Amino acid sequence: MAGPTTAERGERQHLDSGPPRPPLLKRLPKPRTLVIVLVCLTLLGAGGVWVFYGSQWLRVERVTASGTRVLTPAQVVEAADVPVGSPLISVDTDVIEARLRRKLPRIDSVDVVRSWPHGIGLKVTERTPVLIAEKGGKFVEVDAKGVRYATVSRAPKGVPALELDVSPSAGLRRFGTGRLVREAVRVAGSLPAAVARDTRIVKVRSYDSISLELSGDRTVAWGSGEKGRAKARTLTALMKAAPEARHFDVSVPTAPASAGS
Questions:
Q1: Range list of H helices, 81-169
Q2: Do the bridges between strand 209-214 and strand 199-206 make them parallel or antiparallel, or are there none, so unpaired?
Q3: Which of 72, 89, 155, 212 is most buried, judging by how many CB atoms fall within 10 Å of its CB?
């Protein structure tokens, strides 16, 4: 007996498969459920805002300062002028940092941090003098960036004096006093540790003529602030090779010189 034809088999498969089934639809939450969720989220948000801004729980009650050396913590706290009693989250830390640097130039950097739940911390880094310039019987401190930031009545120990012996010239008009001071600072920062301890004066006559006066009536012709590392290595070797010398010239580090008197 013959089997079903190809046409019959195709028709049977079509009948067995039936009409296409509609895709399953995701069940959406009921409108009432959505309203309840939105109300809850709104209440939570309003409660959070009230906790941070309206309640008495998270307000500034104390301000502390740390990291001071010459300044006192009380000076820093007073200059910061943090609004005690205000919400801790509303304190503008950037404004306080700018205010401190403006009122207290001795501060190089400051980090204002919130100390939850009631504190503000002022972490201060003071400038350190690398040179001191005499002016009117007092002394102006100069830091490693060339910033003249404070005037004191007594020179700090161990800090070399800066002498600007610059005549009005095209070089002074070109570089300016500020640039020459920064070059002197650059030289002071390049000195070998042993030489730095013995340096009494850094004298600037021009951009290319910077010299040192050391203890024991010794002098060093340094030249410009360029090639500081090479000059430092050369000076160290020169002093070891000629320990009795009193005058050293490393302005050209590849052709140094020394003299006994």
A1: 93-103
A2: antiparallel
A3: 212
Instruction: Find tokens 């002016």 and name the residue.
Output: 135
Structure tokens at 16: 């067995």
Q: Within 13 Å of residue 127, how many CA atoms lie on the same side as its CB?
A: 22
The token pair that represents 1 in the structure block: 């007996």
Residue with tokens 């409660």: 47
pLDDT at residue 30 tops 90: no
Separation of alpha carbons 126 and 185, rounded Å: 17
Closest CA to 146 of 218, 204, 232, 60: 204
Q: Other CB atoms closer than 10 Å to residue 232's CB: what's the count? A: 20
Contact 250, 220 (CB under 8 A): yes
pTM over 0.90: no
Band of residue 20 on the pLDDT scale cut at 50, 70, 90 = low
DSSP annotation string for 77-105: HHHH---TTSBGGG--HHHHHHHHHHH-T
CA distance linking residue 255 with residue 261, whole number of Å: 19
Write down all domains in the chain, each with its CATH number in brackets: 62-126 (3.10.20.310), 131-259 (3.40.50)
Q: Are 159 and 144 in contact (CB under 8 A)?
A: no
Choice between 49 and 175, residue whose per-residue pLDDT is larger: 175
